């Protein structure tokens, strides 16, 4: 008798709960930042579950974690399915974890059914997708797809920890995972993720078939003024970088997004130095996250940011220095993979729609080396990067079912690959 591989919804929901306890925060979210002890504990739990099922477990020099189930044709590169286990400092329990644990559930479903696939399938948990402790994000998938990572040696985390030491310690904490080189040929990649926006929930649609990811740029603006006494320095004598920073932010927020509904501008971190209550700051530094689906619009937004910051700094007799720390052009997913995911949703009779991802994901980099695509599921009120992030259990299970269906369709046949 042939068993049909089937997602075990209870098992998946139980796993989501178990992983949400690792780094859990009092407000119901998770703090499991990249390469932290909590991140290591989550990797360990996943590896132990995998070894318990007889799968092979590997890691590479970036601490990307891979779980392999062999296919009949060992010569074919594997199909990768997965996401990430690290979180924002006040992150939700589904961002990354849903995709990683659903991929593992799909692998277990195949194992439960003793199903044979032609291709080997590997579940992957990419390292440092979030980029909040160590910038930039998506480090694991960037390295896997051939980025030059030599400059990363000197990266220091937001908590002062050196990146290279933390990666080393993370790898050493899981000696059961065999070490292998970074990068390898793959046949394709599928990632399930929460939408992190409101459209699927609003439109009562279970499945988003992601066709592309918009571009992102991260910049750091540093405005230099002159430190001075808060009480004695009159207006005419002040060179206050905080005044310039506030004016620049106000002007940009009043124009960039209100003039273009596809544009995104976020100032997520700001610091004043020396940071004393009764001193005019010497320097104010803030980060800017810019996003747009069209590269020429991103160029225009960056140019506007540079112009406004320089002008507002000059108006206060200050100096603005602006550096681009991360430039991630958007990417379109493979039509063949998009069609496979749509077909999987159709077979399962699930309402679905095509959409663009506003968030960046590891799939963006995988799409550069292999056919890749993403499946989105709705999240409550579109909330993410927030401890209240919530996915209805039924939606989580539907997403995992589409992932399994698409995985089975792909792993049975050879994909065209550009590797
Ligand atoms: C990913 O976490 C993003 O910021 O888009
Ligand atoms: Mn994510
Ligand atoms: Mn995230």
Which characteristics define this entry?
419 residues; alpha/beta; Aminopeptidase; Alpha-Beta Plaits; 2 domains; 10-stranded mixed sheet; 5-stranded antiparallel sheet; elongated; binds glyoxylic acid; binds manganese (II) ion
Topology at a glance:
Elements: H1 9-20, H2 37-52, E1 56-60, E2 65-69, E3 79-84, H3 97-112, E4 121-126, H4 139-144, H5 163-172, E5 178-180, E6 188-194, H6 199-202, E7 207-213, E8 215-224, E9 228-229, H7 241-255, E10 264-266, E11 270-273, E12 279-280, E13 283-292, H8 295-315, E14 319-328, E15 331-332, H9 335-347, E16 352-357, H10 362-366, E17 372-377, H11 393-411
Please name the CATH topology of the largest domain.
Aminopeptidase
Task: State the end-to-end CA separation.
Answer: 37 Å
Would you identify the regions where 5 or more consecutive residues have pLDDT less than 50? Answer: none
Strand fraction equals 15-25%
Shape: elongated
CATH architecture of the largest domain: 3-Layer(aba) Sandwich
C-alpha-based Rg, rounded: 23 Å
Q: Averaged pLDDT, please?
A: 96
Bound molecules: glyoxylic acid, manganese (II) ion
- Percent in helix: 25-40%
How do the helices and strands follow one another from N- to C-terminus?
Answer: HHEEEHEHHEEHEEEHEEEEHEEHEHEH
Structure description:
With 419 residues, this protein is an alpha/beta fold. It has two domains: 9-213 and 330-417, Zn peptidases (Aminopeptidase, 3-Layer(aba) Sandwich), CATH 3.40.630; 215-328, Alpha-Beta Plaits, CATH 3.30.70. It has eleven helices and 17 strands. It has helices spanning 9-20, 37-52, 97-112, 139-144, 163-172, 199-202, 241-255, 295-315, 335-347, 362-366, 393-411; strands at 56-60, 65-69, 79-84, 121-126, 178-180, 188-194, 207-213, 215-224, 228-229, 264-266, 270-273, 279-280, 283-292, 319-328, 331-332, 352-357, 372-377. Helix 1 packs antiparallel against helix 3 (97-112), helix 7 (241-255) runs antiparallel to helix 8 (295-315) and helix 9 crosses helix 11. The radius of gyration is 23 Å and the shape is elongated. The two termini are 37 Å apart. 49% of the residues are buried. Residues 84, 95-96, 129, 193 line the site of one manganese (II) ion.
